[in-house]
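Box 3.1 A note on notation
Throughout this textbook, protein chains are presented in two layers. The first layer is the amino acid sequence; the second is a token string describing backbone geometry. Keep the layers aligned when reading.
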Amino acid sequence: ALSPWPGFLAAMLSGAAFLLALWRLPESLTSKSEHATRGLLDIAGLKVVLSAPTIGLLLLTSFVAGFSFATFESTLSLEIKRLCEMVELGAGEVSGIQAVINWVQRFGYTSADDVHLAVVLITYTYLGLVLTLAQGFLVRRIAGRVSDGALAVFGAVIATIGYGLLSLAVRNADYVLLSLAMAIVTVGFAFIPPAIQSLISRRTSADQQGHVLGVGQSVSSLARILGP
């Protein structure tokens, strides 16, 4: 059976991040800070968003980007399973995935379910690595050299090209092209959230930023929920 340790490791890393934030991050509140209001629905934040057309459009862009990426992530495993089943049943040639299946089987994963799951995990590991490199290196180095608007447009164009290639890869049952398309989509998406967040922050007054950014986080969370 596949090991549960990747899940355990992810939980430990999240716990370590929480402890570091608890112990090392400086407190932003001062004795003069106003107490934040609490509630299930931030009416004031919604009013600010609705009264500023550009902010509303930025939040809509954030929702569409998050929704499309969440949909892509959640359906990717189904597509990989389909490709594995095609190889297993001899239903057609699937470029590239046979090599991955052979590599997985060398580690003793022989049942169809274990092979499917292992290939899915390998693919998502690759996806996570691409996203890490894109956010940690590309975005950081380009963000200070171009405007936030150009950064968001660039990310959207790249992601759209990637989605087109994804469609082509699915139609042709091509795992190699699917892997390339995944990387392009992920790189494009990596540029969008930070650019949108920066634009929202710059176009909102200092006393309303908390409201608007809170609504922005809620919109992003909703997109991640509805995508799957």
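The longest helix spans residues 53-89. The mean pLDDT is 87.
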